[in-house]
């Protein structure tokens, strides 16, 4: 390996990974592409290597959930005594076949392309409602007033949840505090206590929703998921609740980050915003793909070797963990020409931001539709807006990259 001595072992807690992870990603990708991390797992960062791991269902999977976490907490930690981790262990994206295959097929059977595409007119209406609410003010926080509200309202529409329910604010606040369990690191005691409490809260809400759907069926996603329980190998109530929380959270958290990250990049590269404003219909889809590539909301993904294997001719033993740096792969010059140039006309949809293989994001189509419509709408409605890039605040989260604040002014 070249340049190993010059590089510090990768540490997911490094503060630079929050502010700007890409210089560190580039150093690892170019100098030490098969890298040993501080916690002891392997780190891969080149596009071909990342794709190889994420697409290879034979040699890589999620592995032993409990043992994976004990890598960070130590051998005596009782993983399943924590409701946050107990919930996470049941989420199908954290499982291997055959359990993953069974649950994912039931989810995709409910979350059909037809159901998702039918939402497009409503997504456009929601965009208009949101901008109408703050247009006359001459300013807005694009994260809290648009990027988050849009996908929350859309996922509520899809699931058949009343967005105006008094519990909604608490449910939205619960997701980032609960989803911290996705981070492969040792959580602080307050973080873990809060995550457990938030998961308990979300489980109570969605269990009640499913009981309601079974008694009073509707034409919505929650009813469809609940009714799979009547079929052989259908979802149990606990499985349906677990899936619903995952879809609800991922359905707005990652999409909000795509929109927020995109607005940040489009205004940091103002010429690209101007190009989008000049042709919003023609460039919105391509711009969305470039945002996904250049400033991915999913920065990295973990896998476990299921058997002795190799990555780029380097041996990996069964049970060893591998971190794939998706954000580094998406800027690999071996795959993308001039990779550090943000270009809304690039249209490269072969980035790795939705993962790959059997764990490819089930909500990718919905995220693409929401991002495309959001960027097209804002370019038409607020073409002259100015974004406060210096005041932008990044969320303190390594795996899921996004902003907590992005102020804009116009008029």
UniProtKB/TrEMBL annotation:
InterPro entries in the record: Cyt_P450, Cyt_P450_B, Cyt_P450_CS, Cyt_P450_sf
SUPFAM superfamilies, alphabetized: Cytochrome P450
Source superkingdom: Bacteria
Alphabetized UniProt keyword annotations: Heme, Iron, Metal-binding, Monooxygenase, Oxidoreductase
Pfam families per record: p450
Entry-linked CDD domains: CYP164-like
Family to which the UniProt record says this protein belongs: Belongs to the cytochrome P450 family.
Name assigned to this protein: Cytochrome P450
Organism: Sphingomonas echinoides
Organism ancestry: Bacteria, Pseudomonadati, Pseudomonadota, Alphaproteobacteria, Sphingomonadales
